[in-house]
Queue: 3 jobs
Job 1
Amino acid sequence: MYIIIIGAGGIGKKLVKFALKDKHNVIVIEKEQEKCEELVRKFDVAIIHADATQEETLKEAEIKKADALIATTADDSINLMVVSLAKNMNVPLLISVVNKEEAKPMFLEKEVNIVKNPDDLMAEYLYKSLKHPTVDDFMHVGEKAEMFTLPLSMKSKLSGKSIKKLKLPKKCLIVAIEREGEFIIPTEEVEIFPGDKITVLAPGEQVDKLGKLLSAS
């Protein structure tokens, strides 16, 4: 893919790292000279030191051949202006950080895939780690459900039991098991063992119950 990234701050730099690792063609647009220089020192990536809200800058980045544009700045007005220009130039995939909740409708109106304020996401993740210390990872599924990963404790009394014998709480579903780096599609007959990372889809209020169930010895 040919990807244009707007902003070379913390998020932009991480995106560059991941995109280059997957061998995508990447170009970055950044207005601050210092950030441009820092990015060039770390990565072998094309970067344009200019204002991304200017149409000429996007043309310089060869936006007509872009498969995706990702806006990562901390200013919603800049992100919105850039994705609006990109939409008019027929970029197939538009993604943007949205820093303020009230700005969401304007991005959604332009059919932009949005990502919540990174500070909010991190705070939420940290709080859930505090609230559910046995849980490794979280993801919202709609407003009431969550997908999360729990490791089966080394002393778990469930070791060696098949999924159909686990007596999971209602509306809870095991959707994946990771064992020693291997991915296992769970069926009723699959047995679980200590060290397994078990990914579950369930109502949010069931997280604690499942944590206790899988860690019980």
Job 2
Amino acid sequence: MKKNAIIRFLTKPYVYAIIFSIVLIACTTYSLLDVFVIPHYISAATDTSDNSDTSSTTSSSASTETSNTGNVTTTSTSYEDDNIKVTITTIEKYNTTIYVADVEVSSPEYLQTALANNAYGTNVTATTSDTAESVNAILAINGDYYGANKTGYVIKNGTVYRSSVRDDYENGDLVIYKDGSFGIIYENEISAQELVYMSLQLLCRTTVVQRLTI
């Protein structure tokens, strides 16, 4: 009798539509969670502290880990040692409190980046304060959210983590070169392998830089 009831239920015209809808919703939900929520750890961050051409990992910041600090002077809005000087200014504009950090370093090795949870992957997240504390950063700001995208160069502290050209390559990336200068590059014009020989950091998607035609 129970078997006959199941057969009668499955022969109803709307049953398969309901089953299909449930499966479709489940698959869509999983796909969205997989893309935007579920973390996927691909590799640990590369420790480059022993490499003379690069520097140890920190969070978009100046760090005491590689700084020969010497005499240190700090206030609530400033930090200064023999290699790093940071001054924070507060501006009230557009009904918004804006914090401006002026950073001076003796070498570009003191301007470094860190990966959330010290790992490269997708949907790997951590608060800026936790990341800064983990690397003893003097100043830290949140960086580009590379993990939300499948393409686009990822270069941190002289290490290439991803070398595929971003889909919207007409938008430029900000590069910090090894001599301390900044520049804008377009990923369809230079490979990540070529770029890493010249640069320490690459920041993309944080600010979109459009190529202008004059």
Job 3
Amino acid sequence: MKLLIIPVVAGLTCIGAALYLFLRLRAAKISSPKMSEIGSYIAIGVRAYLSRQLRAILLVTPIVAIVLGFTLNIWLAVTFVLGVFTSLITAYMGMSASTRANVKTADDATRSVTTAFHTAVFGGSIMGFSITGFSLVVLSVLYLLFKNPNPLVGFGFGASLAWRHLYQSSRHRSRSGRQDRGEYP
């Protein structure tokens, strides 16, 4: 049990790194008003997309949780819901950060490729650190509570279900947009 402190500390370190990078990105000024304006429109679109996906996922989550609770185990259903919420929180953080990072990277690219590269890498790192950090902390705490790895399967199922839905729907929208422009047959 004493070894479980390692993933908790590692997870909190990842969350701290993600928060630091996000605050640093948020504080960075964009020199072009036009890029800032376009970035704000993209951010509005991202929020609209995420809210629609959130509604769809939250509509299905209670149904799946009830089925899991009655057929398998109530704790599996609880960890499933925690997995869904963890995935949704990190998706929101990652999409918000990547929207900001994309605008800042484009702005930096007008002056220096190296600076733009660093902005892009650090902006992408926010999502990776968030997913890793929150998952490590939540899974470690759940293992401490249950003292059994079996209910943790629900967490993985919930997190992957939410992520899969977000990924597939964004991939579908992206592909259909390219089909409209004649890029796909």
